[in-house]
């Protein structure tokens, strides 16, 4: 039921319809919250399972501010409710310091960062907390929740202990690819070090989409009930995209890393130079390769990656770029091959079965693995 204080306009989401439907998603037991908004005053919280088998004697209470909301507290509230300590907790939206003091956790309000007391605000003077691990972006409330609870959430998704090395790999990767942008946008940090105005407006990122859930000034109903309905929709959107990111890294990113790592370890069996990789199964490899080269201190750097095109069943020779965000190759395929195809290319290269070499030299193809490997070995010498 709704309990709204006339003095503080505090809204207790005791029985808000924030229904978790738990279903199988590969090896996951977390699911996306589905908001059934038909009757918010009588809707009830229900769960069929939880991340912890320990029964909860009483529901914990997590506070954040009322009024206009942003992506960071919406996502922070979603994430903290996935943890054992705060599973399915009530969300209480208020700025009343006396109410906040009595809550089990407080996000994005209260002027205190103290993880021992589960206080996760980032607005106070002197706050400079960052994620660490080489990241220097100031944290938002979502970043603080992720910093302290992210490994638990990921370990539950993987069904392993929090100390497992795969948890740490994904913990860092999700921060890099998803969480850091939430922190930066909320703290007003520009993506580029430049005084030039952007060439275009981007209002399609998650923080912008969450912001659009706030009540419009033209809405006739500006009540706390309406505002909190909107906040829960924002939680659902931000949370679903967070879980999508975690699950992508669990189900796709991590297996790809393992494949690339095995390939890198075996590179000298392909060619004594160690500069040619062969992927036995194609997977996203570029970011993993750059990270593994750094971790494994590989020198000389790898120049070409070979893999089979699943559709054509032909083999590709791809030149490794100088960095993940650059088109320039470390060693492009030979200039004299570029733009040639089929028999003309095979004759010029002296290698049977050639199919093409791109005009930029970043990729080429051969009908067989042996032919593609011969192209890569010849390109190293030219």
UniProtKB/TrEMBL annotation:
Any one annotated GO CC term: nucleus
Domain of life according to the entry: Eukaryota
Family: Belongs to the MYG1 family.
Protein name (database record): Metal-dependent protein hydrolase
Originating species: Pisum sativum (Garden pea)
Taxonomic path: Eukaryota, Viridiplantae, Streptophyta, Embryophyta, Tracheophyta
